[in-house]
Structures are given as C-alpha cells and as structure tokens.
Amino acid sequence: KMQNETLLSVENLSVSFDGFKAVDNLSFQLAKGEIRVIIGPNGAGKTTVLDLICGRTKATSGSIQFEGRELTRLKEYDIVRAGVGRKFQTPSVYEDLTVFENLEISYPSGRSVFEALFFKIDKKIINRIKEISEMIFLYNHLDRKAADLSHGQKQWLEIGMLLIQDPALLMLDEPVAGMTVNERVRTAELLQRIIQSRSVLVIEHDMGFVEKIAHRVTVLHQGRIISDGSMEHVKNDPKVVEVYLGH
Ligand code: ADP
C-alpha cells in the first residue's frame, strides 16, 4: 500500500574524505509508506548515505529535505527529534535491563534513565510499551533481561526502542544479518507493520530478503546510483550484473 507523497528528498548529495568521493552527486526520493533498499558492493557508499541522512557525517555539498526541513543544517540529535531513527548493525540494547525497561527508557519523555526506572510511569507510556512489544514479537518477554534474548530478538528490541520515539523514517543497516530463517520471516512481517505509518530505508545484502521486502531497490557503486527501480528491474540491469559478477 504505497502513497506517492514524498517523505525524504536527497538532492545532489556529495561527501569527500581526503579528496575521495565516497558519495558522489546522489539524488533520490523516498515516498511515505515505502520500503527502499540500498544495495551495492562493499565500499559503494551505502553506510555513508545513512550517516549523511542522520547527521553523523556532514555533506560536502547537496541537500536532504525531510518533511520540509533541511537536515544538512541540523545536528544529529535534532535530526532524531525531527523523526529520523537509525539502527546500526550490531544490536545495542541494555543487556542488564528487561525488555520492558529497555522500551521504557527509550520513550521520549524528557526524563533521565534514572527517573524513568525509579519513578512511577503513567498509563499512556505503559500502553505504548505494550503496543510496541506486540509489534516486535516480544509481548510475552517483557520481563526478560535483554541479555537472555536471542540475537534476532535483540535486533527487534532495538527496532522497538526506535519505534517508541515515533520516527517517520526508520533506517536499518543489515537488519537480518545473523538471524535465523524464522526470524527473517518475522522481520519481513515487522517491516510490513512499520510501514503502515512510516517509511523504511534499509541497507541489505541478503538478496532473498531484499526481494521479499523492497518496494524499490537503489544500487550504489562508487558513490553513485547505477540502477534504481523494482528488484526485477535492477537484477536484470546489465550494469548491476557487471558490478556484482565482474566481467
Ligand atoms: P558501504 O557501506 O557501501 O560498504 P561505506 O559507505 O562504508 O561503503 O564507504 C564508502 C567509502 O568511503 C569506502 O571507500 C570507505 O573506506 C570510505 N569512508 C567511509 N567513511 C569514511 C571516513 N569517515 N573517512 C574516510 N573514508 C571513509
């Protein structure tokens, strides 16, 4: 169920590291409710694109429009507040806290971690935690320590910790790496739930998974888009075949 309204618009974005163009004049748009997957060989610039959008890396030139705001002028923290959530590849949950507590401290209430853990929380937050935990398949594990979760469950928990902040855009770096077959199936299901009200930008190497989830695939090579469109289109594009298979 795709809408055509644009959420994110990247225009002529470039960044150089010591004269090396890691991202080279990149332009693309992401629609509301869309799952876009960025693929490409190692060193293509995929991670750098996500770093630029979330403000970790500052662009050398170009623009990133998000819901009418120019992200290249904002600090990383303000980009989060503007509604961009970013998950890195390795799960970073609080191992000693329960699933419930991990979600609770991620709720953007303005309270400190200490306050969140030791003072009474209101019903609204509890309901939100329950709702998110259901979405990420952890409703029956709310009292478990994060340390006791499987790798896949930790990844879902971290996605939940982002969702509870209500981002309009969620960026995921290889979300199914290290997951079991069953966890991959459920992650695809989770993404379907997420895009009911948000957009998702994913870096992924698992082509079976890409085929399953992507509305549209963008292929990066040497910092540039070499192909873009449906999975069917890009996988039959001679330029993509050449990059992946050599000559
Ligand atoms: P990918 O995620 O597609 O594997 P990256 O975005 O990590 O590619 O990297 C693209 C290129 O930019 C690589 O050649 C990498 O070495 C370089 N690069 C990325 N970040 C930096 C940095 N902070 N400083 C210098 N070079 C970098």
UniProtKB/TrEMBL annotation:
One of its GO terms (molecular function) is ATP binding. Pfam families: ABC_tran, BCA_ABC_TP_C. Keywords: ATP-binding, Nucleotide-binding, Transport. PROSITE patterns: ABC_TRANSPORTER_2 (PS50893). Residues 8-247 form the ABC transporter domain. PANTHER family: CONSERVED COMPONENT OF ABC TRANSPORTER FOR NATURAL AMINO ACIDS-RELATED, HIGH-AFFINITY BRANCHED-CHAIN AMINO ACID TRANSPORT ATP-BINDING PROTEIN. This is Urea ABC transporter ATP-binding protein. It comes from Acetobacter oryzifermentans. The lineage of its organism: Bacteria, Pseudomonadati, Pseudomonadota, Alphaproteobacteria, Acetobacterales.
